[in-house]
Amino acid sequence: MRSNFLSDNISFPFRDPHWVTKLAIGALMILASLIIPLVPLFFVAGYCLRICQRIIHDDGPPHLPEWDDWSWFFRNGFRLSEAGLVYALPGLILLTASYLMVFYPLITNSMYTIITNTPQELSTNAMELIQNGAILMGVATVISLVGGFFSAPAAMHMVSTGSIKAVFHIREWWEILIRAPGKFLGALTLISFVSIILLTIFTVLTATLIFCLPAAIIFSIGGIYLSVTASALFATAYRAGALINQESRSGGKNA
Which of 114, 158, 174, 226 has the most crowded CB, counting CB atoms within 10 A? Predict the structure, then answer.
């Protein structure tokens, strides 16, 4: 499948004539997850899994599927979420804790100022908490990036085999990873960079309180776009690595 790896996978959603409707439904699911934790995200994960299947199994170009089987999306989205979190979870837990340490004092201070109409300086304990949170955030970011780098091919291997146990078959997906490391690394770098920007915008706007709703809408729209493009990027990287690995094995047998 010859294509411009990054540009084709980044732009593919907009080639669908019904992309506005399809992405809007996904954005509503992410928006709902801000009220109902996790559950709506399983539908989004299942939707993304359908994108991955088309690329990995059919070697077809990325395409936005229809939202036509909600039970399938939920069931398989849960499985994909499990696969994706196996290696990324430690970093995500630390990253969440660091965000709370940094932004909780800022948000509570802003709320106090708005409610009492009295400027309030951050206490010494709050400043120490923010500083420690910033340090932890740096460590957590590195751990998250490493975990994400390994969780991507592991999750795609689950999609390829249809078995959740495949994420633990490290030797199998490692052989595919090392055949196309640049594609996996490029996808992870791009998605991580955009995700950090999106989270920063969301956090800053949320801290103002006045822009909480616009922040949630921006986060939801950006979230669904990142989800579908990340799925296409990682699935394409896996497919490329799998093809190279297959050709290498065939060449070895022929030799």
Answer: 158
Residue 184 burial (10 A CB sphere; 0-12, 13-18, 19+): buried
Q: Which amino acid is at 218?
A: I
Q: Which residues of 105-138 are buried (b: 16+ CB within 10 A; e: fewer)?
A: bebebbeeeeeeeeeeeeeeebeebbeebeebbe
Residue 132 CA to residue 120 CA, distance in Å, equals: 21
The pTM score is 0.81
Domain boundaries, the chain: 5-254
The one-letter amino acid code at 204 reads: V
* 14-54 pLDDT per residue, tens: 999 999 999 999 999 999 998 898 899 999 999 999 999 99
Nearest-10 crossing angle of helices 70-116, 39-58? 130
Within 10 A of 70 (CB to CB), how many other CB atoms are there? 11
